Amino acid sequence: xxxxxxxxxxxxxxxxxxxxxxxxxxxxxxxHKADLRLAQLLDDSGAIGDDGIHKLVxxxxxxxxxxxDKGVEDLLPFATxxxxxAVNADDVLARVEAETxxxxxxxxxxxxxxxxxxxxxxxxxxxxxKLLVLDIGGGSLEIAYGIDEEPDAAVSLPxxxxxxxxxxxxGDPPAPEDVRALRRHVRTEIARTVGEFSRRGAPDHxxxxxxxxxxxxxxxxxxxxxxxxxxQRELKRESLEAWVPRLAGMTAEQRGExxxxxxxxxxxxxxxxxxxxAAMDLFGVESLEVCPWALREGxxxxxxxxxxxx
Length: 310
Known about the structure:
By secondary structure, the protein is of the alpha/beta class. The chain is 45% helix and 20% strand. The protein has helices at residues 50-69, 81-84, 89-100, 109-124, 161-168, 176-198, 211-219, 237-248, 252-255, 263-266, 269-282, 295-309, and strands at residues 2-8, 12-19, 27-35, 74-79, 105-106, 131-136, 141-146, 153-157, 205-209, 234-236, 287-290.
């Protein structure tokens, strides 16, 4: 069957269409994206304003049309941290449903981490052993650890690259004191969670997902996306530590000229790099592998599992 997953994230609204059935690997058939940056459309009270809601409705309608055009028979729509943490989330969800017919499922942060972990486990298989999975989104950082398909520990922290850029780094390039303040904040937040994971023992394999990690790995020398999903891509902490001060001294336009960095994400790459560097340092990770599957694939896999057991 042809499934569609509609991901209303903090940076983008992304429709991924796959051909899939229980027991088989989902095959990507179509991808439709719109940059919305919901995490940056929150007002001072933490609400998504009328303009932001109007834009969200419009991009959901466009995604619905794309899903219809591609013959999607089952659509799985969900939203993550930007909608989850908006003070008017109920109003936003009601408007989207009233104007598009789409009822967005709001994923809790821990559930987001669990679904991403499931996707990573399926990608690498049981031979990967105990996994530590890191995922930097636009609004939050997810961390999960475990040896099975369901992680033993999963947390979500409000350390997304878009959120932090909007709240902490107003300059372009940012002021050094702002970068230092954000670095302290990020490390304090992550350090609070380290004990919950470290008491479970060292992971056998550390994996990262998300556009932020993919771009950081690319500028540090990893293979281009054009070389395919199955090329191993690693990010070493030593390389990342060398890049952070360079990114801090660049404007968003200059970052956008780096290999693999999209213009739309260039402005928040520094904040993402600070989060990635802090996580790797505090968890004692010298090198990690980038996984091409993440939350959207986890949602699809969970749906297929339910279909197979019905």
